[in-house]
Amino acid sequence: MRHVHIYLIIGALLAVGLFAAPAQAAPVLCEKYGATTVQSGRYVVINNVWGADTAQCIDVNQSGGFTVTQAAHNKPTNGAPASYPAIYAGCHYANCSTGSNLPMQASAGGFGSLRSSVSMTYPSSGTWDAAYDIWFDPTPRTDGQNTGAEIMIWLNKQGSIQPVGSQVGTVNLAGGTWQVWFGNIGWNVISYVRTSATSSLDFAIDTFYADAISRGHAQRSWYLTSVQAGFEPWVGGAGLAVNSFSFGTSGGGTDTTPPSTPGNPVASATTSTGTTLTWGASTDTGGSGLAGYDVLRATGDTFTRVGGGTTTSFTDTGLTPATAYRYRVRARDGAGNLSPESGTVTVTTLSGGGGGSCSVTPTTQNAWDSGYVIQPVTVTSTTARTSWTVTFALPAGHTITGMWNAGYTVSGGTVTVRNLAHNGAIGPGAATSFGYQASRPAGNTQVPAGYTCA
């Protein structure tokens, strides 16, 4: 079962002006794609019966909301909903509210302070969900279908319906516990379904977006284009109501208290190219709830964010062997407040090998203007093993012309070497070796470095 949030026949609708907001806001909208503005254009209200031909009317509340007064829908619950009546700030298929400052890039300085709040009323009948629909696009799009991420926040639902895709996790955000769902329908859909229903929500937009980024489903370079709150009815829907809605830099929230300082990070499982950090949890007493953590890294004087998430651990990869890195951690809450930074831990990556149990020592046997021979490349193990893999970076323009005592593949600039059947087993303290020859551009004196064994 899933719903698909695609708005159809857009070109024709724009051509006939169905998305154009009337100068005088109508008290009731019954047109299939009827739209009007409230609060002097600050928000747009849309009837938006995009998935059915059944009747639907909404009574618009000029203070910032609407009530579904008629809904004759009867859609199968294993398909798309009938409609998405909603109130929104931003741009939806070229119909834009005023003063929202959207689109806004999620990396912009003001993005973290964007907030929204909603209060809703639900009927006891019908099959529906009550959800925010927050859209992101790789470009500052004001018209057409967004292709980045669709963040859906389900405050409540009734009936046998579920979001797009499948459940991929559970997370505590914005004062509640949420199931996390993911699917792709031409763009990423990340849905948060509250495990205990609520009729109101006040949160920072980045609370949920940062979680989506940490899961690899969204990007900080994308643009927020609209923030919408409404309902997806499959069956019935009369009585669903948005009582109030807000969007802006304050959103009605009053939380100005930052979270507590996280515990100092501790490093473990450090290799030549990565390390894992863990730290003590932060707490938030301001009311908006702990939203997650930022991991900051420096090799010089300046710390920059390299990742984070909602858990108290982070694995940093792609590091340079035999290099010192310093790390700190900070926490952020649902209002965008940042905690003081934790103390610093310094981590020095290994010169080669996988955590000390396996090491690699290459020897340059011969080198000339356009090539070289590396032999032996000695693989030593401190523990018994039945196989081994060595990786190293091949400089640009270099090509391996032969290898003996091992097999290999090349992907991009990374060479992956694997044992043959006769030399995979290495006893504790024992070693084996392989060798190879490579060509290089004339005048280039480089040889590969950064060998890692696993």
UniProtKB/TrEMBL annotation:
<protein>
    <recommendedName>
        <fullName>Glycosyl hydrolase family 5</fullName>
    </recommendedName>
</protein>
<dbReference type="InterPro" id="IPR013783">
    <property type="entry name" value="Ig-like_fold"/>
</dbReference>
<comment type="similarity">
    <text>Belongs to the glycosyl hydrolase 12 (cellulase H) family.</text>
</comment>
<feature type="domain" description="CBM2">
    <location>
        <begin position="351"/>
        <end position="454"/>
    </location>
</feature>
<dbReference type="Pfam" id="PF01670">
    <property type="entry name" value="Glyco_hydro_12"/>
</dbReference>
<dbReference type="InterPro" id="IPR002594">
    <property type="entry name" value="GH12"/>
</dbReference>
<feature type="region of interest" description="Disordered">
    <location>
        <begin position="251"/>
        <end position="281"/>
    </location>
</feature>
<dbReference type="InterPro" id="IPR012291">
    <property type="entry name" value="CBM2_carb-bd_dom_sf"/>
</dbReference>
<dbReference type="InterPro" id="IPR036116">
    <property type="entry name" value="FN3_sf"/>
</dbReference>
<dbReference type="InterPro" id="IPR003961">
    <property type="entry name" value="FN3_dom"/>
</dbReference>
<keyword id="KW-0378">Hydrolase</keyword>
<dbReference type="GO" id="GO:0008810">
    <property type="term" value="F:cellulase activity"/>
</dbReference>
<feature type="domain" description="Fibronectin type-III">
    <location>
        <begin position="261"/>
        <end position="352"/>
    </location>
</feature>
<dbReference type="InterPro" id="IPR013319">
    <property type="entry name" value="GH11/12"/>
</dbReference>
<feature type="compositionally biased region" description="Low complexity">
    <location>
        <begin position="255"/>
        <end position="281"/>
    </location>
</feature>
<dbReference type="GO" id="GO:0030247">
    <property type="term" value="F:polysaccharide binding"/>
</dbReference>
<dbReference type="Pfam" id="PF00553">
    <property type="entry name" value="CBM_2"/>
</dbReference>
<dbReference type="GO" id="GO:0000272">
    <property type="term" value="P:polysaccharide catabolic process"/>
</dbReference>
<keyword id="KW-0326">Glycosidase</keyword>
<dbReference type="InterPro" id="IPR013320">
    <property type="entry name" value="ConA-like_dom_sf"/>
</dbReference>
<dbReference type="InterPro" id="IPR008965">
    <property type="entry name" value="CBM2/CBM3_carb-bd_dom_sf"/>
</dbReference>
<feature type="signal peptide">
    <location>
        <begin position="1"/>
        <end position="25"/>
    </location>
</feature>
<keyword id="KW-0624">Polysaccharide degradation</keyword>
<keyword id="KW-0119">Carbohydrate metabolism</keyword>
<dbReference type="Pfam" id="PF00041">
    <property type="entry name" value="fn3"/>
</dbReference>
<keyword id="KW-0732">Signal</keyword>
<dbReference type="InterPro" id="IPR001919">
    <property type="entry name" value="CBD2"/>
</dbReference>
